[in-house]
Design a protein that fits this description.
8 strands, alpha+beta
Length: 179
């Protein structure tokens, strides 16, 4: 009987340990995926050259995301989109950068875009459009946000007409608050 009691405590201890390790494992996997994506972007840009403006924008975005992830005070918050995709807000106060990373986000029809927003006390301000061409094959879509994140702001993502809108025209499909 004494051994049963000991094994029960051991099982509970193992379950508790798994519970606390799971979020760390998921965050480590997400960070590794972003690092691989950034590395692939740099290699692809190096092989293709950076002559076009879209190439230079992609290079600038990749460099900013790398800088953000290397910041000593980088923070992350995650949520799930309305259709079940994992979205992660990454930000750093010292680098004044923030980004949204979304796994497996489906591409939209040609007349729609995903638009990102800073949502604060003053209302919604556009933070740029999210290119889903990478995620169309089940990859990761991400965007370093235009402007600056203010502590406590919420980052929202809406589906807007092609080219974006001055103000959100739909309900956000995901909203993540910074701390």
């Amino acid at each position: 009987m004494g051994s049963r009691s000991g094994s029960g405590a051991s099982a509970a201890e193992r379950a508790r340990k798994r519970w606390f390790q799971r979020p760390a494992s998921l965050l480590a996997a997400a960070a590794a995926a972003v690092a691989l994506f950034i590395g692939g972007t740099f290699v692809g840009l190096g092989l293709a050259g950076t002559s076009g403006t879209s190439d230079s924008f992609a290079a600038q975005q990749a460099a900013s995301l790398a800088q953000l992830n290397a910041a000593p005070d980088v923070q992350r918050a995650s949520a799930t989109t309305a259709d079940g995709h994992q979205a992660t807000l990454v930000w750093s106060d010292t680098s004044s950068l923030s980004a949204l990373v979304v796994d497996g986000l489906p591409a939209l029809s040609g007349d729609k875009d995903y638009q990102l927003w800073y949502i604060g006390a003053g209302g919604a301000v556009s933070a740029g459009l999210l290119d889903t061409s990478v995620s169309a094959s089940g990859g990761t879509a991400w965007r370093v946000l235009d402007g600056s994140l203010t502590s406590g702001d919420t980052i929202g993502m809406t589906v807007e007409p092609k080219g974006g809108s001055k103000q959100p025209t739909t309900t956000p499909i995901v909203a993540i608050q910074s701390s």
